[in-house]
Amino acid sequence: MNTLLKDVFGVFKFAEGLYAGIRKLLVPPKAYSWQTFIYLSVFSWVLSYCATGYIKDIIAFFGWLFLIAGTAWYTTEDPLRVPGTFMPVGAVITGFLVSVFAFGDQQDVITPRTIVFWPTISALITAIPEFIEGNDTDAKARIPKPQDRQRIIILVASSMLLSCWIQFHFVTDNWLRQYPSLQADTFKNSIFVARTEETVKIPKNGVVILQRLQPIVVEQIAERPWSEVEKWLLDAKQRVGNLGREIIKKNLSKYEEKELWRVEPRVTNTKSGYILDLLSIWIGPSSNPRGYYLKKSCRIEPVAAATNSENKITVAEIECDRASKLIPGSPPPQQ
């Protein structure tokens, strides 16, 4: 029985201690405290949802200021340092809030700029108190001691370097999204970029160009009189070039690399007809100094066909490769 009573009293004592801890955390000991700023931020955001127009933006603005002030105050009362530095964890949290406030937006709160500026802002927040001496009521600016200046410079400079590397990540990521054909290249000679995914064997956009171009060319050549087809082939450079520009404009409009693809034909005589090579040529950066291009070959031959009057005429028959071939180096010269 005594053991049971001790357990019951122990539970009540634990609950009482838990309640006291929560109450101490949530109830401000005085009006001028970090809890007051947090509550003001919550109150401001609630009001901003009920407001409209520029009033809503003004109230939300002050809500962010109250949140940043309250968080900074709370996290600096008993600061926990980032291992290996004198930067408080509170400065990291406050720096994140300041970065979100300064560079976020309503559609996307966390933007690339938010992440990029986060380390630098956190370092500056850590350094600011080193230039102030005194208390809340009597504070004045001062120049840090020589030994403190060195660690401040090292902290801010290393944080700026980290921001630069994060920015470099976003830049390269944007390049690969706007220029996806770069993923088919090799980065083995790069000291900055290391491939973490499987290599793309053939650039997708180059394949798309030839896939869209082939049926149009086939439609313009197949079963046409042979004399017309030969005239078409004589003017193939202009015809295929115009078709290629239209296809690139239509299918690659969302990519910046659309300006780095060019379409050209190559016509070769054979004993039985012609070979028409459709080329999508990459003129952008490449690890190969001579670049590369994709090719799809079409064989064009004359065949006899009967007309309604039972007269036979010679028409063209065309057959193209199913897949595109990736060929490193410069395309063959025009003949």
At a glance:
By secondary structure, the protein is an alpha+beta fold.
Commentary on this structure:
There is one protein chain. The chain has 335 residues and is an alpha+beta fold. Helix content is 52%, strand content 16%. It contains nine helices and seven strands; from the N terminus they run αααααββααααβββββ. The chain has helices at 2-26, 34-50, 53-77, 89-103, 112-127, 146-178, 204-221, 226-234, 236-251, and strands at residues 132-134, 139-141, 261-269, 274-282, 292-306, 312-320, 325-328. Strands 3, 4, 5, 6 and 7 form a five-stranded antiparallel sheet that branches. It has a two-stranded antiparallel sheet with strand order 1-2. Strand 1 (132-134) and strand 2 form a beta hairpin. Helix 7 (204-221) packs across helix 9 (236-251). The longest helix is centred in the middle third of the chain and has 33 residues, at 146-178. The chain is elongated. The mean pLDDT is 79.
